[in-house]
Each structure stands twice: as structure tokens, then as C-alpha cells.
Amino acid sequence: MKKSNFLEGALIATIGIIICKMIGLLYVIPFYSMVGSRGGALYSYAYSIYAVFLSLSTSGIPIAISKLVSEYQTLQYQNSKERVYKIGLLVITALSFVLYLIMMISAPTLAHLILGNLTGGNTVQSVTMVIRIISTSLLIVPIFSVTKGYLQGHQMMDSVSKANVLEQLVRVSVILLGSLLALKVFHVSIDTAVGVAVFGATAGAIIAYLYLGSKIYHHKEELYCHPKITRNEAKITNQVIVKKIIFYAFPFLAIDLCKSAFSLVDTFTVVKTLTQLGYEASIAESVIGVLNTWGTKLNMIVISIALGISMSLVPNIASAYVNQNMTEVSIKIKAALQVLLFFVLPMVFGLSFLADSVWTIFYGADSICSSIFSLFIFQALTFCCMTILLNIVQTMNDTKVALGSLLFGFLLKVILNIPIMYLCHIMGMESYYGPSIATIIAQGIVIAIVLYQLKHKHKIVFGNTFYMILKIILSTLIMYVSLKIIGRFIPVTTESRMIAIIKVLFYTVLGVIVYGVTVIKSGILKQVLSRFRKS
Fold this sequence. Notes:
With 535 residues, the chain is mainly α.
């Protein structure tokens, strides 16, 4: 059970998340070839409902456990720290069981709301079945999440990352092998095969939870060292812990819901507006598919870096902040931003340049969708920065700034979404770029507000950091311009998946070489590596 420092923990968590996301992205190709579009739709119905219930049961509580465990560990309140974990398990178990019952009982109603009077496709009975099967994961996934939060609070990111990868491997194995056996060996219906596939979420969580449970059992002396309870710790009752868990969890839940609401704006406005501007319904639905589903899956490759840094950042800043060590807090904030942009900026520009080939590899050749994705990927950049900064101010108990800035950004998205689509139309641009532009502007404003508050309220000085970021931007632009020049001789556009893979590999290697040489010559790499040593 290795305890990681901040950036080492962030790196471990990021690698684990990227591996999980890549596994989750790659399995779609063989799975959809087995179950087809109807089976794929049935699978997505189950997961779309499950995602809402899972968010209600897990958003905020695991990260609250992580933060509270880190605080009490820093203060050497060992008894209170262990009670946080036990109470967290009780709270999440009760909540998840209630949500499981609701999902099981309401499955037929939810299925009818999804399908309406649809004929010739999936039935209400089949949708009800898969919703009920996947609801079983609500009995284990939230408990698994709280256990991860407990270990994150101890800054033991290695075990958490391994558990995440194990969960994903088991889930995908059940999806692929289960579907293959169901269809090719037992010759059952596609509905039954999809039912087996969605059970993968439950199986993956069970195996990963057992893995973490064994880790905690074998290292219990390392995690809990039985000191005497001090007078200050004696004042911390179970009621106080419950209130703190709720107090810490609610803002994170509210922030997660606000982040999700950005895509809801697109859901309710994009198709209607584009059809009013003369686009065919099929094109309008393709656009919303890129914005809400397919493009988001690809963006998660980049966003994984922010998630990894956040997992390590919250307990580290909580530990420094509870000791009022603002120098350490400042160092970790600036290190997080620099390391984030060091990796994310070149990835975003590279994926934008390779949008056509990347889209062809995963979804097949589609000039409109790849064109949308070439801009949409920049939402990953603003989302990463926004997520990191919101987690920072929230960990520093500045909930008003976090929620206030995010709500303002959301309202800005609501106000700008339709007008920017019309503005693009007037300027002779494709109107389907409008939603991405509106999101980037709105998230950019949130970033600016939080940076302003960190500087003026918490006295975080960003002078050297901004200079470092400027050097990263220049290095990224040198890489991008180099790729564009080569792209004039070796076009990125292709309709062949195999050729697309070759071109992506070629340009990725070329981009890494150009960017690597630039950051070495400019001294950026040396500074980033020094951040790892200091943090």
C-alpha cells in the first residue's frame, strides 16, 4: 500500500483512468458488431437510466470521504477517521438500496417513457429487463466508490488505480465474452445477450471491491495505528461526522449536476435550432450525437488527465489547508495547472488536427461529424481547467465561488447557445459549430472567475505560472504548425480505417518528437520534472 506524493499520485491515477477509458472506448467496436444497432440501443437505454441513479448515489460522497479522511489523518484523529469510513459506508448503503428499489420498481414505467408507442424495435419488456439487471450494480458500485475515497484520503493512489483498471477489465470481459457465448454458443436472443452485457457493471464492481477489501485487511495496521483519543477528538461525534459528510458532499453533487446541465442545453436547443436554419433532421441528430455521446467518449481520453490530477489534488490540498499551510497549497495549485496544460494542450491540438482520421478509426468516415469534433475537442481543454479549479476552491471550503461561478457559466451557455448558432449562420460558417463555441466561452468565463478569486481572496500569485503556461502554448503552436505543414503533403483525410490508423500513428510520433524537442530546448520539461520532485 504505497503512499504517493501529490503529482506522483496524480500520474498514477491519470494512467489508470486513461487505461480504463481506452478499454471502455475500444470494446464498443466488437460489441456493436455482435449485437447490432437494436442491441446497441437497448444497451444504451439501460446505461442512460443507470447513469442518473448512479450519480445520485455516488456524486459527492466518495470525494467527501476522501477529503474528511485526509483532514483527520493530518490531525492524527485516527478514531474519527475510521468512523468516517464506517459511517460513509452506512449512509451510502442505505441510499443506494433505496435507489435500487426505486429503479427496480419503476423499470416498466421508465421503459414506457423511453419507447412510447414505438413498434418494430425494442420492446417495453426487453428494456424493463435490462434496466432491472443493471440496477443490481447500485448495491455494490457506491460501496466500492466510498472504499476508493477512503484510500484516496490516505493518498494511496496505486491501489485505487489498480482497482479501477480491474473493474473495467472484468466489466468489458463480461460484456464481450458473455455476449459472444450467449449468441454463438447458447444461441439465445439479442435481448438476453444485452442483459448479460449490462450485468458486467455489477461483476466488475464486485471483483474490484473484493480486491480493495483484501488490500485494506492486509494493511490495517498501516492504515490505523490506535493512538489515544485526545480531548479535541472526543468532541467529534457521529452526528458531527454525518453533517460534515453531507456538507462536503452536497456542493460536489451540485457541481456535478451543473456540469451535466451544459449538455442538457444542447439536447433541448440544437436539433430544433438547426432544423429552423435549414439543416436536415438527420444532420441535426448527427450533430447532437457528436456533442452528447460520440465526441464525449473521445474527449474523455483528454479529460482523464484532469480526473487523475483531481483524485490526488483534493486530499493533498485538504491536508495542507487544514494546517493553514498556504505556501504548500499555492505550490500544489500551480503545479497542478502547469502539469495539466503540459499534457492536455498538445493532446487537444493534436486531436483537432487528426480529427478526421481519429473519427474514421472509431466510428467510420464522416466529414461532418469529424469537422464538428475538430472544434468540440477544445471543450475538453476548458472542461479540464474548469474541473481542476472548481475542485481546488471547493476543497478550500469556498463553495460559494465554486457554485456561483458554475451557475453563471451555465446561464451564459443557456443565453449564448442559440444566438451563436444564428451568428455562425449569418457569418457564413456552419451553424453546428455554435454549441461548442458557446460552451468554450461559458467554461472560459468560469475559469477566469475562479482564477480571480484565488488571486485576490487566497493570495495565490500566478506570475511565474502564467509565464510557464505561455511557453507551453508556444511549444504547442510550434508542434501544430509543423503538423499542418506536413499535412499539406500527406493529407489526414481518409475513408479507410487501416490507413487512418497508420496516419494517426505517424502524426502522433511526429508531434511527440517536435513537442518533445521544443519543451526540452525551452527548459519546460526540466521545470515540470522539478514539480514532481517538489510536490
